[in-house]
Each structure stands twice: as structure tokens, then as C-alpha cells.
Amino acid sequence: MRNSFILFFSVLLLCACEDKIILDFDRFDKRLVVEALVTDEERPYYIRLFYTSPYTYTLDSLDDAAGAEVRVEDDLGNIYLFTEEREGLYRSNPFEFVGKAGRRYTLHIKTGEGKVYQSKPELLKPVSPIEDIYLEFSKNRDEYRLYIDTFDPLGLGDLYQWRIIYDNRLFDNIDISKDDYFDGMPLKRFNKETSEYHGEKVRITIQQLSLTRSAYDFLYLLREQTINVGTNFDTPPAPVIGNVYNAENETDYALGFFGVSSVSAKSVQLE
Amino acid sequence: MKVLLSFFLCSMLFLSFDGWSQTDDPVLSGEFQEKPLKEVLDTIEAQFNVKFNYIKQIVDTTTINASFKDEPLMNALEIMLDDKPLRAEKGKEGIVLTYDIHKKLDVKRYTIMGEITDYSGRAVENVKIQVQGLKKSYISDSLGFYKLDNLKEGNVFIKFQRSGYYPGSEGISLDDDVTLNVNIKVKTKPGASSKPRSDGQGNQNILGPDQTIELQESEYTLGAFLNEISERGQFAIVDKTDRLPKEKIVRISSGSHKVSDLLDEAFEKTSIEFIAFKGKVILRNKKPNPPNHTISGTVKDSKTGEAITGVSILVKGTTIGATSNQYGFYSLTLPEWDYVIFYSSVGFKTTLKEVSLEGNTKLNVALYDDFQELEEVVVIAENPTRSIDQIEMGTLKMDMKKIKNIPAFLGEVDVVKSLFLQPGVTTVGEGAAGFNVRGGGIDQNLVILDEAPVYNSSHLFGFFSVFNPDAVRDVKLYKSGIPAKYGGRLSSVLDVTQKEGNNQKFTTSGGIGVVGGRLAIEGPLVKDKSSFIVAGRRSFIGSLLKNIDELSNTDIYFYDVNAKVNYKINDRNRVFLSAYLGKDYFELGDENFLLDWGNSTATVRWNHLFGEKLFSNFTGVYSNYYYRQGSTDPGFEYIGDMGIKNYNAKAEFTYFVNPKHTLDFGLNSVYYQFETGNISPQSEGSAIVPYNLQDDYAIEPSVYMSDEYRINESLKVVAGLRYSHYFNIGKGDVYTYQSDAPKEISTILDTIKYGRGDIIQQYGGIEPRLALNYKLSDNSSVQASYDRMRQNIHLVTNTIAATPLDIWKASDQYIKPQISDQFSIGYFRNFKDNMFEGSLEVYYKDMQNVVDFKDGADLVLNKAIETDLLAGVGRAYGAEFQISKTSGRFSGWISYTYSKTERKIKGRFLQENINSGNYFPSNYDIPNKISVVSLYNITERLNIAANFTYNTGRPATYPDGRYIFFGIVIPHYSSRNQDRLPDYHRLDLAVTLKSRPHKRFQGEWVLSVYNVYDRRNAYSIFLKPVKFTTTTESYQLSIFGSVFPSLSYNFKF
Predict the structure, then answer these.
(1) Strands across the sheet containing B1020-1025
(2) Which residues of chain A does B1044 touch, with a Cβ-Cβ cutoff of 8 Å?
(3) What's the CA gap between B805 and B797, in Å, rounded?
(4) pTM above threshold 0.90
(5) Which residue out of B743, B805, B966 would a mutagenesis test of the A interface target, given it has the greatest number of A Cβ atoms within 10 Å?
(6) Which residue on chain B is closest to A37 by alpha carbon?
């Protein structure tokens, strides 16, 4: 919706303009960033740890947090260790650890410098399956439109994220929703973002993920902070704080998020 | 009036006609007291060699009461026979007197008199004064006095001419005797200076009571003494005593004496008192305890008959005064005596009235437009240091004429935008809704249109305001010293009064510009009793956009309608009905998105006057603000409705106890209904299910009382007290939360259900208000004020500029009322005979329970909104400096504001802190602001206006790091509002060309240029990820990124 405001501005004020500027800073807040997603898929899960870079640096190479001890614990007391595959990238053992709906998981990290971080416990919630996926050409818009059929189970509180993968590339769009407006309804011809698709012959996969409340809030804020920016109708910039904190001092937060989701996926091949 | 008349008769010196009499008629002089008409006619026949033809019976039964000085004969006859059923006509056989049965005998006759001076204040004699349409003319005497009597009721046009001077003219609508002082301008001779003298002392020959005269030591009889003073000082002595002890001996020592001291001495130990004006001394018997009488009435605009608010009414020679209220009513209680009363108001010529107060007196006064007759005539206001006595600190009064002269964006005159040029009023950006006053949020302003609250004062998100300039009479903004009758918001009151409608004649006005068109019709329903106004405005923007291909499915428009009717039942009762309806609509077809919002208000008022001193007003108000957003996406059609509705009943009283005390008191009750969100599917197959958030209900009763107390000549105090209570009532469900954790959906424990009308939560508190005005001298004063304000309803927003989708939320058990305490002190000084007004005000404001939001809050359609809201404290302080020139061809002001506003949000839990619980600048913290506003009247028809504004950029948050999360590049911001946007500055110009005056159809072209030097002011600075890379780029968005010229045309007929 806020996108529409921006559109409105560019529409109404044909003279409104954006000028690229250089922000020059030496201020730097170095923090640990956690990129972690545990699902119920039977495959290795990766947890990536690194530090923020000064704003003026490029992110082509990250300041990896190497040498950390990483483990996930569930509410039954099971401990799953992650091994460092390369600097800053930690991997689970799929024969040992597959996420299960109904379990609560906690991430524990001890960095190479010896600082201890841990996440809030996150519940792995089930997700309804994607029943169908299809592409249709819209003459009106002169573009392909991607649709899925799915449904929302009865009972408020189901939270979703949809991730689109073109061949092997994850589309960096944040598409999340809560079921407040469609609780218990079938979702037929549910349109998904295709603005990145330009007619190449690719395989498009849609993943439907269940989200915890804190994951939803985190992604909501992340979207607000990265996509919907630029007008005074957007939220003011704020730190996107997730669910990982210094175990001894809560004011020392890590960035990023330890996500726990069920995944259902469907693909469609474009000829 | 009597006083002037007797003065006139006893001291006037008549001068010759200088040979420019327009008539060859013989002129008649003489006094006829109860003389039979027959005798008069005989005298005339004998004197002028004319012959009368008449029927004997008529003439024998008629007597004449009249006196003439050099009156042309036919005029004299007309005047003599004015109240007789007779008519005089020149015939072949002489003058024929006939019966005239059509003659109206009850036509009232009025007198216009006054003083003619040049710009230096010198009396101008030998000015020919002529009334258009009448042969009658008059010459001003050596004191510049003139008198035109026996004028019929209605419009009179008077010309003032004298060789060596520019001719002057004056239009007056006569419904009472009028004192009209006129200033005419000397034609400049080479080398001669026409610079006005600024001592304001007027004619050198006429002395005021404070001036001195030289006398030799001697003994006078009182009679001789008065003659001496009268001659030396050119004083007219008006004797109203039963018996003046002329034989009393007065001893005077030699030397120079102040006139008032001499008179004091002369009347010492007598039963006579005097009042001395410039050029006049009135004597009368002392009454030991003169009874008090009340002068009351209404002040209105001579042209339209509409009431004028805030007219300063001052009794000459005293500090006693009053101010007309919102309905133009005033009341002054004074001891029996003779008074000269000044009526002055911005935009009007100061008018003075003489009153012999011998009983309760009704005095309705009409004021004349200041803008008429730009060059030719300026009525010199013997300006009774208006602003020093009448300033209400922290209050801005703007009338529409002033606002219309300020260059406007796209030529669209805007009440709210014009406030940004005032000290202490800021905005977060061009095109942002609302305004911020002294560090307060936009919801902390009580915006009322004819008493009805307006919850969103913006059209098109904030580009324009909802007030149609053709429908608004005046605007008043209280920043501090807020009267006790207002409450409910922390920072300010913006009181917008709609026009009442011209009760003299039908007028149509309107205009067309780039943005849209306006049309207003006003006029009398019953002349002098009832009038109406209907005004409408609609934008064209949408239709223009439709022509652009990509936007053909876009529909954007706004409109508003204002209507008002008033009926004056009698002098004691008057009723008003006013209404407003406005709507904005915004649909992006390609995006399947629609949004609309609008305010509607209705106000019923009844003014009633009990006795002469107790003015009352009973009001009923309805106000509704709705906003909706929806989707037209096939299969997902829905509309979401939100809004706030309120019903308000109030009774307000003003008791004009005596000139020292004015008491205001009243009660008020508001019922609110908040619709916080209802989603409804809009088609059969829509996948959207109805989703309803419960409505909130609240009742807010309050009582207030305040006393305006003039302790002495220098000190005035307004002390007020308001008590407001607040009930949040059911029906409603309330969540309870774990007490040992932050409020989150996951920490909800239980739901408590309340039935309809059950009290869920209540708050109440006293709001003291105090304002002091201490006059240091005739042109300077110090003022101070303290205000406590409480606010029970909150606009919940998590964006920098409010959007139309932000919700109004009632206080409940989680959201407490906001409370503020403001202290302010100011120094005011007028310079150069009140030509310049200067002020310096400083303030400190402390706020409690300000509402803020958690980072990432989703406030729209949130069932448990308290989980996303935070409360904290705020503080604001600043200094405002302004110097303005209010009169003359060149006018305007310069203001500078320094201000700071911060808030601190520190909760019980970590998640409830912002910026680690430290003070941080508010979004609208703008430390330095300079405004320069100027208007230059090049000619009567052409003026040019310019304004320049500069301010520090508003706070911004720049990143102090960057990282990636699943391919998304994220700038990291560790704390809010620690940086600033670049400074803002802009120059606007406007040129207005008006059609010739005195024509019925008045047109005007306005060429305005916004952002003259094409500065791209930053609206925001933001970072955007570059697709498929790991970088972000910084951008500066300029909403008004170029020069905006526009042309508009306004008319009135």
C-alpha cells in the first residue's frame, strides 16, 4: 500500500525528483549478523555469521565471523551441532537434524572472540500446502502473471512468507501476510509478484513458509526498512532487531534472524 | 455627538467659498426656531427677490426648525421641508410649494463630521467636501473640521478636494452618525518634504491636555481663564454644567504650564470636573458616585454586515477596553460620563465614537475596510496603541485578506500553509499533512471550523488544506495563553471561522487556478437580519492526469462545500447554522488500489444576551472524519473503513461584570465514537473475509471558568481553570497482559468483556491557565503565561508525515491521556507610532505520556494496538522573535525562531525503549527558522508579494553500517534521528493585478511563482538497494524539485 503512495507522488508531482547523493560517514556500529533458517525439509540447514560493514564499504566480501561454535537446541533437550563449512558458514547434519512441526528451537552461538549469543525459542509451525501453481499471460499488462492455489486453515494466527526462486536464484522480495483478512478461506488464483520475470525460460519455484509471530514482525520491519523508503509516508529508519541477543547483556543485540519454518513448495517450468 | 455639535456651533469660523460654489442659487443663512413657515417664506421673499406660490392652509399650519449657514436656497428648502409633506420646485412663477403625498417622512437623518489633516497631522482648512449626488457641499474650517448633516440613510460617497492636495474620497454606508477623520496628501513640490511627521501630535495649533502653554503671573476669573486657555490652546470649551462659577478667581504663576495641570488647579474645590481631549475640554458637574452604565453592541463590517471578531475597543484616555467576541459582541460598563471610544482591528480603519453615557447604551459600530482607497485617502487612526493593550501572547490572528496576499503554491490560497511562515509553526516537509506547533505533534492541534473539530485538515495528503479561502472569515492560532474554554489538545488551537455571508447585498466570488475552481455565493435572506453563504471548490487534477496514457485508470480528486446561515431574531438572539463537507478520492486503477477520506461537520449555535452584560452561546456540534482504503483486485475486492465521529454540546457564557472583570464560564460534553477498522469484501467471490475491530467509545465532559481581571492600568491577568473528565466506555473487549513481560500478542493473558456503557477506564484532571500582561509603557509590555493541557485522543502514526490512514485512538487503560505544561514569557514593543510591532517570546513545554510506536509497528487494523505503542515524555523550548510592519504601502514581517523538541521513550522492558531510553530529537525538531514575508502595493491595483523561508533540515537517521540478509542488502541504523537533512530554503513571489476599483465586477489576476530559484530542497534522504548487487545507493527526494509558476484568476461581483 505504501508503494502506492510513492506512486502517487511520482504521478502527481511530475516534477518531484530523486537525486543520487553521496552520504559520507565514518560512524560505524559493528554487530554480529545471523542469517539462519531451520525448516522441516530434509536437507542441510546453513547458518551464516558475519559482522556489519561500514556503510561506505561494498558488501562483495563480508567480514565473516569464523571460528564460532554454533548449535541448535530443541525443547526436548536435543542438541544439534553445526560445523563450519567455510569461514562464517555453518552447516547442520541432515541425517541427524530435521525440523519438526510443534518443536521449539533455540540457537546458541559462541563467537571466535568468546561472546555468547542466543536466540529466543522459536516454534516450528506447520503450513498448508500449495495445491497448484500456474502462469498466465495478461494481455492487459503485457506480462506473465504467476498464481498459486492454496488455503488458510481455520483459526487466526497463521502467518506466511512466500519465497520465489528463479532457477537457483532467490528473489530478494519480502512477501509476507497474516490471515486476518482471509482466515479459513480458500485462496484461489492468489497472485504472486512476477516483476522480476521477463520471459526467460526458467523454472519458477514458490515456497510457502509458516512464520512465527516474531519472524513475521521481523520481516515486516525489514520490508519497511528496505523497500518502503523515501517518502515521509514511510516509517523512519530503525534498527531491524531480530531474535538473537547477547546471552549476558540483552542490550547487545545481533542483527539478522534465526528463522524456523515449515515449507511447502511447487514449481512451474516456462517453455 | 451633542458635544461635537455644540463645539461646532460655538467655535467654528467659516471661510469664504473661494469662488468654486457650483450653484448660482442664492445662499441662505439664519436660525429658525419654531418659526411659522409663512414667516420664513416671507423673509426669503424679502431677502432674495423670489416669489413663492402655495396654498395658504398648508403653510399656515407648519412650523420650521432649522438653521443654515450659506446653504443654497433650494437645498435649504429641501431640508426645511424634509419632515413635512411638502415639496418645493422651481417654476416659471417662482417657487411652488405643493403637497407631496409620496414623501417618506420617517427617513432618518445622520451627520458626518470630522477633522481633515494632512499626513503630518496638520489641520487642513478650505477643503471642499462634497457629497456625490447632492449639491450640498462644505468647506473645512481653520481647525480642519467639517460637518455634513441631514444626510439620508444609505451609501454616501464623499469627495475631499483642495488645490495643492491630492483629491480624496470616502465611501460610507450610513446607519448612524459618523465621525470620519480624513487624511489628505499634499502634492509634493520639488524640494519639499512630504515625509509624515511621526510624533503623532497632530495640528500644532491645537493642543492636547499634556502640552504646555506660557502664561504670565496673574489672577483670572474662571470665565476669563477658560477664554484664555481656549484661545491660546485652540481648545473648545464645552460647558455641560448647571452653572459655571465664572467669577471664581484663579491664580496662575508665570511660566509654562501643562494644560491639564492648569485645569486641575482651576477646578480645585469646585463641584465641576473636566475631561480634556486634543482641542476640546468638556466641563460637567461632579457626581459623587456616578452610576455605571453599560455600552454594548456589535461591531460589523460596513461592506458585508458580518461580525468582526477581536476588535479592540478602547476608551480614550484610559486603559479601559474590551474586545469583540467571536460574534462581534462587546460590552463595557463605565461610570456616567462622556467618552470617546476607539474601535480598531487589523484590516479596518480605526473608527471613533463619542458617547454621552447617561444610561445603558446600545452602540453598534460599522468598520470600514482598510484596503479601499489605497492612495487617495487614509483615515488616520489616532492609533490607541492597539497591540500593546490587546496582545494576547502566543496568539496569531490572521484575516483572510492578509493570507490571500501571501504567495501560495500553485496559486491556491492556503490557511494552514500560511501558518508555516509564522514563528513557532513548522512542518516535517512540503506536502505533509498538518502542522507542528512549538514541538507538538500534528494531532496536538485542536483545529476547529465554526466550533466543530476537523480531524484531517489536508487535501491531497497535505498539499492543500481543507479550508476554502472564499468561505473563511478569519483564523486564530493560540500557541500559548490558551483560553480555558478550549481543551482537549496539547499544543495549540486553530480556530477557523466561516464567513457569515453578506447581509447587505448578493455577492458572488470565485476563482480558477491550476489546481481547481472555486465559487461562493452569499447574500441577505432578510436584509440586516439574515444572510447565507454557500461555497464550493473542486480540483481538476484528476482530469488532467487522465490524459496521460499510463494514468488513464487513475482517478484523483477532492472537493469541499461550506455553507452557513444566520438569523438575527432580535438584538438579543441570533442563531447560526454552519456545515462543511469535504472529500478526497484517490484510485490507482492499475494498482487496484483506492483510498478516500473526508470530514463533515455541522454546527448549530444560538447567541443569547441576558441583560446588557451576560452574553451566552449554546452550541451543538457534529463532526465526522472517515477514511477508507480498498482493493479492486479481482477476487480480493474489499473496503476497509475507519473513522472518528463526535457529538458535542456546550454552553458558554461571558459575563462583563465591570471594566475590571470579565468572566467566562461554561460547560462542554463530547461523545466520541472511534471506528478503528472494518474490512468488508466487495464482491461475491472475494477471498477477503469481513474483519472488524471493535469500535471505541468515550465521553469527555468538562467545565471551565476564567476571569479577565484588570488589576490596574498596567497589569491585566487572565486566570482560568478547566476541569475535564474522560470516560472510556463499552461495549468493548480488553486484553490483559502478563505483567512481567512486554505487551505482545504472545503475552496476552485474558480478555475482559465490557457491556454497552460500562466504564472501562476513566481519567480526570484540572487544567490551570494563567496569562499576565504588564504594560511597561504606552508602547511596550511584558507578558507571561502558563498553560496545562490534557489530551485524551491520539493520532497513532508511525510515519514521519501523517497519512490519511493513521488512526485516531481513544485513551484507554493502556494509553493514558497526554498532559503538557507550558511556561512562556514575552516582551512586546511597538515602534514609530505603532508602525512597527516587535515581539520576543520564549517558552518551555513539558509533555507527559506522549505516544510513540515500536520500531516496525503495524498500526493499521491492529487488534491489540497497545502492543505496538509506547509512551514517553517530551520537552520543547524555544525563542521566537518577530518584527512586523502592519500599515502602509509596504508591509510584512521578519521572524526568527530558535526551538528544540525532544522526547524520551523509556519503558519497563528493553523492547519498550527507543534510542536506549535517551532523549532524542522529535521528527519535527527544527532548531532555526527564518521567515520574511513582504507585500508592496505598487499602485492601488497592482501589488507584489514575496516570501522567503529558511530552516534547519529536520532530523534524519543515516546508516552506521550495512549487511546482507538472504540476499537483501540492509542498512543498519543504530539510533533514531541523530542526523539532519540539508537546510531548507525557498523564495516565492506573487504579483496581483486587480481590476479598477468602484466597479461592481472585481477581477484579479494572480501570477505566483513557487520556489523561484529552483532549489531542490530535500524532502527525505533514503537508501535503495541496487537490484542483483550487494550495494545500496543514497537518494535525496525533492517533492518540489523545480520552479512552480502558476496563474489564477479570482473574481467577485
Answers:
(1) A17-21, B1032-1038, B1020-1025
(2) 15
(3) 9
(4) no
(5) B966
(6) B966
